[in-house]
Design a protein that fits this description.
Helices cover 5% and strands 52% of the residues. The N terminus is likely disordered. By secondary structure, it is mainly β.
Length: 803
């Protein structure tokens, strides 16, 4: 069936939701009312970035995206499949203000407008500023963003603070993922893709009634692909994909007023991952004989290639990125007459089994680096939604408990003495000094959070709405960190040892033990004013005062002159956020054109930033507060649908994100490592890491009605492109870690039959553009810069069928 382009907003009744999911782009409907025919339901469902009357649940009630006074990007399930956006990392190509950086699943950051999580090594002791929700369940581990989307109906990317409507307080935004739900009409779908680099992907879902009151849905997904970097040491490719997932849902509807949904999912990754390639070297303040070129020459070492796009590495330590995430949830929705009561109870777990090469070379310097972690998370959300003639409101409560246990091991090898110790010292010529030196870390985190929240919409007139919201939040974190150090012969290395060999070892790993704790209350509020100037023209303005919870340092803290941990650095203060936003949402030409514009500014006090230390094991990184950070800019989203035969979209963002005041920041590598190097640097006025000033996504699809093998449908040609300007890949901007801007182009062409069959070929990064996903500074201030090259040109074909 060819999608129609409605001239009036429509609502999909709940009884037709399952049908709408089958026909085209699904809508994330919750409490939708109205009388529509089946054809109207199909017409309602449009194409995500292509615009149209998309039903969203951003404000915990169903309404069209154009009626929501929030900067929101909607990506439909069909568009996710067509563009190959099978996880949050790929989603960034469709949503310009969403930034995603990942050196491995645990060290992953998801930011919106440049803020959300500190750039660099992940620290479990703080919250994420961008919340990830799947069917109302909060996912606290950002590692979940690296998994394949599983049976997704729609994704809403909300920009700006989301604390008065969502369970967990999030200061930068939220990614709201809605999966396809069980229904009482039998349906199914399957999809198979193959491509170069041994790419194979299969997805399937089936749903239907088990009785008059019971329905079920089961979905599975599997993705595998050869790695994009070749390791000459192990004779195998790394950075591979090997994902499998399953999700099951059971819906019990004893009456029309009550839905009870039990859901469970399990996801596993077993990739050969994660590594890097040589990019460049840069001069530091270290003596010349302690910089990378001299150290490598002393051991007769050279990288297999000095061109990162040869995609060659020689890492000699074991690599692994075993990652398992799963859980269960019980969602109860009860229509109590004047409103809807919703309860969401959930448990989630995360098991992380990594192995890394922390020296980034083929030399046996760091021979073992692993920090396996296990998490259990429990959440309970209860909220009440009311919709009236003049007043709508949501009130709710949220409880969250998280426990993370981590066991770390880092060991040095026979090449470490010559590489790590001063060449002027005789100890540098004795491999046994550091060979086998091992640090064993034990840490845990207990994280408790509770909140009451609410938001009121007062329709002052038919055109003007005032929307205040409040949140009262309590957070408590208790942690523990201990590092024990042992020499190669198994003897303990303690702080009291003063012999030269022990002093050398203590310069690499220092024993440490402390138990940080943090607790605090905060009160958040926001106010939004909306003016519906015309049927298709909405203006809104928002002010929000919110907080990001304080945290604790779980990866170690600096030692003082007495050799003991500086306990003042064990905790970090809450971020204080003032957010301003104004926007307009408009539709023209009988709603064939949708145009949304947004301007924003966010001021953050006590910004939680990563502070990196150049030593191998003294301190990999810890959190500290930057005095002031500011991000501001403008965004636009436009879609054009002149006819059933053509549609196009373009989204763009200008983001100016800076440290307004950070006078004691870590110095960049060019100012580090020397005896007279400053202990810290003033980077006030410099750009935040990971943020491109300019980012765009754009695309179009044209089709022509035809027939193929007796089936009626359309031949179509689609294009999706994106561009981002340069950005800094180091917490303190460095001349060595600027990533050049780049543009990528993706094409697809195929035949879409009216009965649900879809066959198409695709090519991504069609012009085989060389680009870097992320740069990292090597340990020890040697001047080494390594990186992750982005995917090369990939191509393949997909066949989808539904019934």
């Amino acid at each position: 069936m060819t999608a129609k382009y409605p001239s009036a907003h429509r609502r999909v009744p709940a009884s037709l939701l399952t049908l709408s999911l089958l026909l085209a782009t699904p809508a994330a409907a919750e409490e939708i009312t109205g009388e529509l025919t089946a054809d109207d339901a199909a017409a309602q469902v449009e194409g995500g970035s292509y615009g149209g009357d998309i039903v969203v649940t951003a404000r915990r009630r169903s309404e069209t995206a154009q009626d929501v006074p929030i900067a929101i990007s909607v990506v439909a399930g069909e568009q996710i499949d067509n563009t190959g956006s099978f996880n949050v990392g790929r989603l960034t190509q469709l949503t310009p203000t969403l930034q995603f950086y990942s050196s491995n699943p645990r060290n992953t950051a998801v930011n919106i407008r440049g803020i959300g999580a500190p750039f660099g090594l992940t620290n479990d002791g703080i919250e994420q500023g961008v919340g990830i929700y799947v069917d109302d369940v909060y996912y606290s581990r950002v590692a979940s963003s690296t998994f394949d989307f599983l049976d997704v109906a729609q994704i809403e990317v909300l920009r700006g603070p989301q604390g008065t409507l969502y369970g967990k307080n999030t200061t930068a935004g939220a990614i709201n993922i809605t999966t396809n739900q069980p229904g009482f009409d039998f349906e199914g779908k399957a999809e198979v893709s193959i491509g170069n680099l041994n790419f194979k992907q299969a997805k399937a879902a089936i749903s239907g009634p088990l009785s008059d009151t019971l329905a079920a849905r089961v979905a599975v997904s599997s993705t595998s692909r050869r790695g994009t970097i070749y390791n000459v040491t192990t004779d195998r490719h790394i950075q591979s994909q090997d994902n499998i997932g399953i999700r099951g849902q059971l819906l019990w509807r004893p009456t029309d007023a009550l839905d009870i949904t039990l859901a469970g999912d399990w996801n596993r990754q077993e990739a050969v991952c994660c590594g890097s390639v040589f990019v460049r070297t840069g001069a530091t303040q270290r003596p010349l004989n302690r910089q990378f070129a001299a150290l490598a020459a002393a051991q007769g070492y050279a990288f297999p290639s000095d061109n990162p796009y040869d995609r060659l590495t020689d890492l000699d330590a074991t690599l692994n990125a075993g990652n398992e995430i799963g859980g269960a949830s019980l969602r109860i929705k009860w229509d109590v007459g004047p409103g809807t009561l919703t309860s969401v109870t959930a448990w989630r777990y995360w098991d992380w089994q990594p192995e890394n090469d922390r020296d980034f070379t083929g030399l046996p310097i760091v021979t073992k680096s692993q920090n396996p972690s296990q998490q259990d998370q429990y959440t309970q959300e209860l909220r009440y939604n009311y919709t009236g003639n003049r007043f709508d409101f949501v009130v709710g409560g949220f409880y969250y408990y998280q426990r993370i246990d981590t066991q770390g091991t880092e060991a040095h090898g026979p090449a470490s003495s010559r590489w790590t110790l001063n060449p002027a010292s005789a100890l540098s010529n004795d491999p046994s000094v550091l060979d086998g030196l091992t640090a064993i870390n034990t840490q845990y985190l207990k994280n408790t959070s509770a909140a009451l929240f609410g938001q009121l919409s007062w329709k002052v007139t038919d055109q003007v709405t005032i929307q205040p919201g409040v949140r009262l939040n309590y957070d408590k974190k208790d942690g523990y960190y201990r590092r024990l150090v042992f020499a190669g012969d198994g003897s303990a290395v303690t702080a009291g040892l003063t012999d030269p060999v022990s002093v050398a070892r203590l310069g690499v790993f220092t024993p440490q033990e402390y138990a940080p704790s943090f607790s605090d209350w905060n009160f958040s509020y926001d106010l939004t004013a909306t003016w519906k100037a015309a049927t298709d023209l909405l203006f809104y303005a928002t002010y929000a005062k919110t907080f990001k919870s304080g945290g604790i340092n779980q990866n170690g803290v600096p030692n003082g002159a007495d050799g003991n941990p500086i306990l003042a650095a064990a905790t970090v203060k809450p971020e204080s956020v003032d957010h301003y936003e104004a926007g307009v949402k408009a539709e023209f030409w009988d709603r064939r054109i949708t145009l949304n514009l947004t301007a924003f500014r966010t001021d953050i006090g006590n910004f939680q930033a990563n502070v990196n230390n150049g030593q191998f094991g003294v301190l990999r990184g810890y959190l500290a507060n930057a005095d002031k950070v500011r991000t501001q800019g403008a965004e636009f989203d436009v879609s054009v649908r002149p006819s059933e035969r053509f549609r196009a979209y373009a989204n763009g963002a200008y983001t100016d994100a800076k440290y307004k005041r950070f006078v004691d920041a870590p110095c960049p590598p060019e100012l580090s490592g020397g005896a007279s190097s400053p202990p810290n640097c003033d980077i006030s006025g410099q750009r935040l890491p990971g943020v491109s000033k300019w980012a765009f996504s754009f695309g179009a699809e044209a089709n022509a009605e035809s027939r193929l093998v007796g089936k009626e449908g359309q031949f179509y040609l689609g294009y999706d492109g994106n561009y981002r300007s340069n950005w800094s890949s180091n917490p303190s901007p460095s001349a060595y870690t600027w990533v050049k801007g780049y543009a990528l182009s993706n094409f697809r062409a195929g035949f879409r039959a009216n009965d649900g069959l879809d066959i198409f070929a695709w090519v991504r990064n069609a012009f085989d553009r060389d680009y870097i996903d992320q740069l990292s500074v090597g340990p020890g201030n040697t001047g080494l810069i390594v990186g992750l090259p982005g995917d090369p040109r990939t191509w393949g074909a997909t066949i989808k069928a539904g019934f």
